[in-house]
């Protein structure tokens, strides 16, 4: 029986619906199914991608195929082509879209019902839009601490500026990209550093596993707003858990809104910053004085929402927030000062708007806040005009002075003249601008950011063609928008004399809190107490009864000529009766034997975490009076000695640790060591760049020590031992980076490198003429990795061995400490580390004798990330079974912790005659170790992020001076640079982004432009001829434009 005619006029129904309904009627009238027939689902679905799936048809076998009047399909076309045409019409994903989804189900696996939700402004939207800029150096993907990587099922909070955060579950890691599935049913990508909060193990990984086939494998080509998303029946279980968690957090927030909305007034101090963890804040606000109360994940989310609504008042470090959950609660005085300036800017803008309407009336009604801004702007214009008589404003930095001064015994390279004073209102505005442009405190805070922009625009000094010099590629500021980002804000502070023309913003990182840069109340108290201790140190040696007198044994301290803090020395002795064996001793300074972890010097060291070294100045962890006068290695000084008995093949036979006193010290430089042993070292090519004048000679009273033949032989034996140690590590997969090195020295006075401390001038204006001399000495890199060592590596190998000895000794006794190791980064390579070594690395080494650049970069990435843990773990990057830093207790607080733990165990063993076991002493009334495992884990979470910040501070500061020297050489011709240079490509950026390169001759990192032209495809390991395109001193970036491909390793291997 045929279907009845449609009872409604067809003119009122669209042709697609007519055809769909007609097909449905025909199916109802045909009860006999046919095998291997394909039912085509018609009609475009607005919110769902449509996919084909084999299913039985209701058409009889002998019935003709249904004809789609809206989509004719000639029978002459192949079935695959017909299906492609049908897919295109119905709106399903095409082959181009599927190219980014390598795991997507194909053929018989195709499914219906993909979840495609509307794309509103959510924090899981993959597009970043016009987000307010932050610090470009916020790239902490390799924070060294356990918990570095997320695991499937971990729930995170995804945030974007100006949007409410949303919950998402971690699905998988692809290289540096983390993939998530959000509560809104979207897949999305982020970097680990952008994740500020995580709830471990919140969702069963079994629910996450089915999502993986629908996640993109090519993150560069996949679009979150594209066609392919997760099917709803796979996504709903996860979405429900995330949704319930979100609802519970909202419920807690509503119930406690009066408390949460006034959290700052309850927690803040008037003058002192307070440091509290998220758990502590939650217990204070919601615990109702119940000590046993513990916040649930939903309660923590509710508290985080309240804190995020007051992001400036509750400061957090995005580089470590996920791991530490620590918030710094700003003092109310600081917040009031910033918010006052914000009010002034609003009043000023309102006055300008009123003035445009009625100039006469608005002039009479000008508020005091608006007047403060007006007065400051007028003063700034005068100061900027004066500054530009002496220096040009560049993109992000002032140019060199038009006047220059030679460095002599009686004169310095710079001259400073002070001018008019700043008023109290001026000082408040300057403080605001420093927070905005120098310390980058307002990133992702649009209201504060806009105030900084408004002040700079009000001066009208940074608009118009040609105002800012040396813009890249001849670009000029947009006259409608102006150059009003933090780069121009920093330039503004230089031009009004607050910052010096050579200011290194690296040291102003809020998290560093360096002495003389940004003092906290706690740091002020520590410094004051340390000075009081200096008058009467009263140091007492807790290891005095256990010390071994090393007597006449010669200890060699091999360090640079200007080294002040000597942490370690080396000695070697043959094993009696065994010519092929010797004891290698690493003697390390032992300050921790003289004060415990509660001493004021310990507090100061914990605050500093490590010594900070920049070309212009150093910031020691311990006061110089303590380290140099009491603990730095010298004759008759106490040491903690790490001893290793080994044979000439590098096999470790025995290790031990013992406190002692060294009597005979010989100080050598690496160059002197090489000369004494007669090493025919390969001539290392060096390149020197100097700007600002002739480098002054440095004062030195050093005379080369005279060594006996026996002492020279001991140095040769140490060299033999070092080479054996490296061979053993290399066989274990260890790698040495061989990309050269650049030494940066800065001079303004004769005698020694460095600059006098010149803090920001907030009391009165300042005009500085002349510029410091900058010297760069680069050792040219020959390869991306180093396969052999020379005598300059003796100390490094000995220190690594001492750290292995310490880790082995402590590991045998289950002593918790800050052990170092490495973990493989998920998705870093298609092969596992072992597979990469066997299939690629070792065969390549055997064939070529060294690793190519591309293989070296790939191998280094596959070796993983360095982490810290409270128990031993392998360090595959170095090539050792375990590793514990112990050789720099004068410069690293983590080394001090290790010394305290070791000393406690040594005293226990001396007292009891038994081998110490930390697990067996847990139940004792009085703990033996200063740090329990739980305390050690907390210390790791606190110290690891700071260590990474300090490491990057040292690197970024040196690179800043490199960029400043290059700017003065390239734009102002203070030194000659080659027209073109050779650049190695280290990594290739995604579409429309720059690649990372390495400038071989000068041994510095650079950015490489991507040129959209044939023949300009960049590959990792390439060597290109390139020219300088731009130099941005503020961003510390040198950008190169590739010209010609010189060498491609893939073409010859």
From TrEMBL:
SUPFAM superfamilies: Nucleic acid-binding proteins. GO terms for cellular component: P-body. InterPro entries: NA-bd_OB-fold (IPR012340), OB_CYT4_C (IPR057912), RNase_II/R (IPR001900), RNR_Ribonuclease (IPR050180), SH3_CYT4 (IPR056625), WH_CYT4 (IPR056624). Residues 547-908 form the RNB domain. It comes from the Eukaryota. GO terms for biological process: mRNA catabolic process. GO terms for molecular function: 3'-5'-RNA exonuclease activity; RNA binding. This is RNB-domain-containing protein. Residues 51-75 are annotated as: Disordered.
């Amino acid at each position: 029986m045929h279907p009845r005619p449609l009872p409604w006029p067809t003119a009122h129904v669209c042709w697609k619906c007519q055809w769909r309904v007609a097909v449905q009627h025909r199916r109802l009238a045909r009860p006999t199914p046919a095998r291997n027939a394909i039912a085509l689902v018609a009609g475009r679905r607005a919110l769902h991608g449509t996919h084909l799936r084999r299913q039985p048809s209701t058409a009889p076998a002998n019935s003709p195929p249904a004809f789609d009047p809206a989509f004719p399909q000639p029978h002459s076309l192949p079935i695959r082509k017909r299906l492609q045409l049908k897919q295109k019409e119905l709106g399903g994903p095409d082959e181009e879209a599927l190219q980014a989804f390598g795991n997507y189900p194909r053929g018989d696996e195709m499914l219906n019902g993909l979840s495609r939700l509307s794309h509103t402004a959510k924090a899981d939207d993959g597009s970043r839009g016009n987000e307010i800029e932050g610090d470009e150096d916020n790239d902490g993907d390799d924070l060294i601490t356990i918990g570095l990587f997320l695991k499937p099922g971990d729930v995170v909070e995804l945030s974007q500026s100006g949007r409410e955060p949303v919950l998402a579950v971690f699905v998988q890691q692809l290289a540096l990209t983390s993939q998530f599935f959000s509560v809104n049913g979207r897949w999305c990508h982020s970097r680990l550093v952008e994740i500020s909060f995580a709830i471990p193990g919140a969702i069963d990984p079994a629910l996450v596993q089915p999502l993986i086939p629908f996640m993109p494998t090519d993150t560069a080509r996949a679009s979150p707003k594209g066609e392919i998303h997760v099917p709803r029946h796979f996504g709903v279980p996860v979405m429900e858990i995330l949704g319930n968690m979100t609802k519970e957090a909202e419920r807690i927030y509503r119930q406690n809104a009066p408390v949460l909305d006034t959290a700052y007034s309850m927690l803040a101090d008037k003058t002192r910053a307070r440091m509290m963890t998220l758990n502590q804040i939650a217990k204070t606000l919601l615990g109702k004085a119940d000590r046993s109360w513990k916040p649930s994940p939903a309660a923590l989310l509710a508290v985080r929402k309240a804190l995020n609504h007051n992001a400036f008042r509750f400061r957090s470090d995005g580089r470590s927030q996920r791991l530490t959950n620590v918030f710094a609660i700003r003092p109310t005085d600081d917040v009031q000062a910033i918010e006052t300036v914000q009010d002034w800017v609003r009043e000023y803008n309102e006055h300008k708007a009123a003035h445009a309407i009625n100039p006469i009336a608005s002039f009479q009604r000008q508020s005091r806040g608006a007047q403060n801004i007006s007065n400051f702007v007028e003063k700034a214009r005068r100061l900027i005009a004066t500054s530009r008589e002496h220096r040009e404003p560049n993109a992000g930095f002032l140019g060199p002075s038009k006047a220059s001064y030679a460095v002599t015994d009686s004169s310095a390279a710079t001259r400073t003249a002070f001018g008019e004073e700043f008023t109290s209102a001026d000082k408040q505005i300057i403080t605001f601008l420093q927070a905005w442009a120098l310390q980058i405190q307002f990133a992702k805070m649009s209201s504060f950011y806009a105030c900084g922009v408004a002040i700079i625009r009000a001066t009208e000094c940074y608009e118009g063609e040609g105002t800012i010099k040396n813009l890249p590629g001849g670009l000029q500021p947009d006259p409608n928008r102006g150059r009003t980002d933090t780069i121009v804000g920093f330039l503004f502070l230089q031009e009004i004399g607050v910052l010096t023309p050579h200011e290194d913003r690296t040291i102003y990182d809020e998290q560093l809190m360096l002495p003389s840069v940004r003092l906290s109340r706690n740091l002020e108290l520590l410094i004051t107490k340390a000075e009081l201790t200096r008058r009467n140190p009263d140091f007492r040696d807790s290891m005095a009864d256990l010390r071994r007198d090393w007597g006449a044994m010669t200890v060699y301290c091999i360090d640079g000529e200007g080294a002040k803090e000597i942490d370690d020395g080396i000695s070697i002795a043959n094993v009696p009766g065994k010519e092929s064996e010797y004891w290698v001793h690493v003697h390390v300074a032992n300050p921790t034997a003289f004060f415990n972890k509660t001493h004021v010097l310990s507090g100061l060291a914990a605050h500093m975490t490590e010594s900070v070294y920049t070309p212009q100045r150093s910031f020691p962890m311990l006061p110089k009076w303590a380290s140099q006068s009491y603990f730095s290695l010298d004759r008759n000084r106490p040491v903690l000695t790490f001893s290793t008995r080994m044979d000439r093949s590098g096999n470790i036979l025995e290790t031990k640790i013992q406190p002692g006193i060294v009597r005979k010290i010989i100080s050598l430089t690496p160059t002197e060591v090489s000369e004494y042993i007669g090493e025919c070292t390969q001539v290392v090519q060096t390149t020197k760049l100097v700007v600002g004048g002739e480098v002054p000679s440095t004062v030195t009273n050093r005379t080369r020590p005279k060594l006996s033949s026996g002492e020279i032989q001991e140095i040769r034996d140490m060299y033999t031992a070092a080479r054996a140690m490296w061979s053993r590590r290399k066989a274990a997969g260890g790698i040495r980076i061989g990309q050269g090195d650049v030494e940066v020295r800065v001079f303004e006075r004769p005698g020694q490198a460095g600059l006098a401390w010149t803090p920001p001038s907030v009391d009165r204006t300042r005009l500085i003429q002349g510029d410091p001399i900058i010297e760069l000495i680069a050792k040219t890199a020959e390869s991306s990795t180093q396969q052999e060592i020379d005598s300059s590596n003796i100390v490094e190998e000995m220190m690594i061995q001492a750290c292995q000895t310490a880790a082995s000794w402590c590991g045998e006794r289950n002593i918790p400490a800050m052990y170092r190791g490495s973990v493989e980064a998920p998705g870093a390579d298609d092969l596992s580390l072992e597979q990469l070594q066997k299939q690629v690395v070792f065969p390549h080494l055997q064939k070529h004798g060294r690793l190519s650049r591309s293989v070296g970069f790939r191998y280094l990435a596959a070796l993983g990330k360095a982490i810290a843990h409270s128990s031993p773990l392998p360090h595959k990057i170095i090539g050792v079974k375990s590793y514990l830093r112990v050789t720099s207790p004068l410069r690293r607080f983590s080394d001090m912790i290790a010394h305290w733990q070791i000393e406690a165990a040594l005293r226990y063993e001396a007292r009891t005659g038994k081998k110490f076991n930390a697990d067996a002493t847990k139940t004792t009334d009085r703990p033996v170790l200063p740090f329990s495992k739980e305390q050690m884990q907390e210390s790791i979470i606190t110290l690891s992020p700071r260590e990474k910040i300090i490491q990057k501070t040292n690197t970024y500061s040196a690179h800043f001076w490199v960029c400043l020297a290059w700017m003065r050489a390239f734009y102002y011709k203070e030194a000659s640079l080659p027209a073109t240079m050779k650049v190695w490509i280290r990594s290739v950026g995604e579409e429309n982004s720059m690649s990372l390169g390495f400038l071989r001759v000068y041994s510095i990192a650079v950015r490489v432009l991507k040129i959209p032209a044939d023949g300009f495809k960049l590959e990792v390991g390439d060597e290109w001829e390139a020219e300088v395109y731009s130099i941005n001193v503020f961003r510390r970036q040198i950008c190169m434009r590739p010209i010609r491909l010189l060498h491609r390793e893939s073409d010859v291997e």
